[in-house]
Write a structure and sequence with these properties.
The structure holds two protein chains of two kinds. By secondary structure, chain A is mainly alpha-helical. Helix content of chain A is about 40%, strand content about 10%. The longest helix of chain A has 18 residues. By secondary structure, chain B is mainly alpha-helical. The two termini of chain B are about 45 Å apart. In chain B, a hairpin with a 2-residue loop joins strand 2 and strand 3. Chain B has a three-stranded antiparallel beta sheet with strand order 1-2-3. Chain B has a three-stranded antiparallel beta sheet with strand order 6-7-8. The chains are: A mainly alpha, B mainly alpha. At the A-B interface, helix 3 of A face helix 1, helix 4, helix 5 and helix 17 of B.
């Protein structure tokens, strides 16, 4: 069978793409967050997973109890000095490629608590991909952050982080 | 104690009932069923719990210290965030304490609005409790049902205060703003619909064999133990003690509402569940009365030294501008003294101890949080139960870790 005949027989049933795009598409649409709630924002994170907002539309409803099975850490709330090493341990236990969303003012900057007890921004201990403002942010804000992250993951292709 | 041959002795020198040593298991702080960042060190004999030591402080936010650096009216914002499932009730405890020191009394409409917000918060707090506890014990759809109604309540919060969770609605001197007509409409619709929704939850759980077998007889806490350990709220009432601060030491006009104190004599996780269900029904009753009897009038004290003048006055009155400037630069001073005020939150006695040295910032603010004290009863409840039951027991303690650690 010649090439032209082959092309004709396959017709519209085949798509061509690059491996990077394909992997990015797969990763971007199945971002599994680690079940890691800290404070007030965790309640809004739970609300994002419920029927009203439904994070499942974006392929991220599988909140994993084990960091070994997750791709995304949503730092949902204030991180105390005592919690910081544990947070870093959880992050280290996640397999590559992995991403971090800093949810809310406390996780991003310390928020209203500029004092001895809190880490003034989680980006001091883990690399953050998307920051969400708000105290706490609405569930829609978390979805928006997830969509931003998905775009980024899709664009990153086969090697997410250099 | 003589040791049978071939049995290792644990670090505490005890041997388990099954002849083996006790196994110490670390539980948390990152565990999906601890309702936050609670860490427990559990000694296990086989699968039975022999001791539970809570390790707290993983969410220590320095809230009490932070309050000392903020002016009196700024402190309200921080009170929202310690027990993050019942912000308006925290506001209320703080506002009542500051008002007592200032010697002011808020108008009747403000009191009624405070009651409305408190009861809505109690409902949303119990809904989060029921949704997450149901999820942990295998009733996954509870989360979807409970958060549906919680979202309705948060929409009302947003309508009245502009914010979903941390409303900062109740402030010393009154409330942030009057209820909008739309808020009252939403509340009316909610009060009509909510009893049906509570029936729906009961259909899903009350006679559910899995829920019953996971909670009946689990986490026994006798009335004497509950009192000795300082448990309050549904933990105490679930042990048959009818102690509710709304009845015992009424505040904010609770004496004018007709409601029952929910109790249960079962003393176990199921009893505490029944208490919370009953409390939700009573909260709806209070909301209906508050809505029907909502008095007219101002929602703030008429005192320019404590609350800013209305916007339109600023354009015509020099005095108003001065008051406004003073309030937003220095704030107001509170006479020296100290006071302890306790209110009933969804978790129990939510107390606020405020010390003033007569300046524009508090000298000390201490919260007596119900979650922290209720956590003490954890070991008493969990003793000799299976490790899996610990999940149900932590669940019914309903500890909010932000409230425990502050």
């Amino acid at each position: 069978m010649g090439v032209e005949a082959l092309a004709e027989s396959l017709g519209q049933n085949i798509l061509t793409t690059t491996l990077g795009k394909l992997i990015g598409w797969g990763r971007g649409n199945s971002v599994w967050p680690a079940q890691f709630g800290l404070a007030c924002c965790a309640i809004e994170m739970i609300a994002t997973a419920t029927a009203g907002v439904d994070i499942a539309r974006f392929g991220s409803e599988a909140f994993r109890a084990s960091p070994r099975q997750s791709d995304l850490m949503i730092v949902s709330g204030r991180v105390s000095q005592k919690m910081a090493p544990i947070l870093r341990t959880v992050y280290d236990q996640m397999p590559e490629p992995k991403w971090v969303i800093s949810m809310g003012a406390c996780a991003s900057t310390g928020g209203v608590f500029n004092n001895y007890a809190l880490l003034q921004g989680v980006d001091k201990i883990v690399p953050v991909d998307v920051y969400i403002p708000g105290c706490p942010p609405r569930p829609e804000d978390l979805l928006n952050a997830l969509m931003i992250l998905q775009e980024r993951i899709k664009a990153q292709g086969i090697t997410p982080r250099q | 104690m003589s040791t049978p041959e071939g049995v290792t002795i644990s670090r505490t020198g005890e041997t388990g009932a099954f002849g083996g040593e006790l196994l110490s298991v670390n539980f948390g702080p990152h565990h999906p069923s601890t309702h936050g960042v609670l860490r427990l060190i559990v000694d296990l004999d086989g699968e039975q719990v022999r001791s539970v030591k809570p390790v707290i402080g993983y969410l220590h936010t320095g809230i009490e210290k932070q309050m000392e650096a903020l002016r009196w009216q700024q402190g309200v914002v921080v009170t929202d965030r310690h027990d993050y499932l019942s912000p308006p009730i925290n506001n209320l405890a703080y506002a009542l304490a500051v008002e007592w020191l200032l010697g002011i009394d808020v108008p009747p409409r403000a009191k009624a609005l405070r009651v409305i917000m408190s009861e809505l918060t109690r409902l949303s707090s119990h809904l989060v409790w029921m949704g997450t506890s149901g999820l942990e014990l295998g009733a996954m759809s509870m989360l979807m049902y409970c958060f549906r109604e919680r979202d309705t309540i948060l929409d009302m919060n947003e309508e009245i205060s502009g914010f979903r969770m941390h409303t900062s609605y109740i402030r010393p001197g009154g409330v942030m703003a009057d209820a909008t007509p739309r808020f009252l409409e939403m509340l009316d619709a909610f009060v009509r619909a909510m009893p049906g929704h509570v029936d729906e939850y009961e259909d899903l759980l009350t006679m559910n064999p899995i829920w019953r077998s996971r909670t009946i007889g689990i986490g026994k806490l006798s009335a004497d133990d509950a009192k000795v350990l300082g448990a309050t709220g549904p933990m105490l009432r679930g042990s048959g003690v009818a102690w509710d601060l709304r009845k015992a030491i009424p505040y904010s006009g609770y004496e004018n509402y007709d409601f029952d104190v929910a109790t249960s004599d079962l003393c176990d996780c199921y009893g505490r569940y029944l208490v919370r269900i009953k409390e939700m029904r009573e909260a709806v009753k209070i909301l209906r009365q508050a809505l029907d009897k909502l008095p007219d009038g101002p929602v703030n004290v008429d005192d320019r030294k404590i609350l800013p003048p209305p916007r339109e006055e600023l354009e015509t009155s020099m005095e108003a501008v001065i008051h406004h400037f003073k309030l937003f630069t220095e704030g107001y001073s509170v006479p020296a003294g100290d006071v302890y005020v306790a209110v009933e939150s969804g978790r129990g006695e939510n107390g606020c101890y405020v010390v003033s040295d007569g300046t524009h910032k508090p000298r000390r603010v201490k919260f007596r949080s119900a979650s922290f004290v209720n956590l003490q009863a954890l070991e008493r409840m969990a003793l000799n139960h299976m490790i899996a039951d610990l999940i149900a027991i932590i669940g019914t303690a309903d500890a909010v870790l932000g409230d425990v650690d502050r």
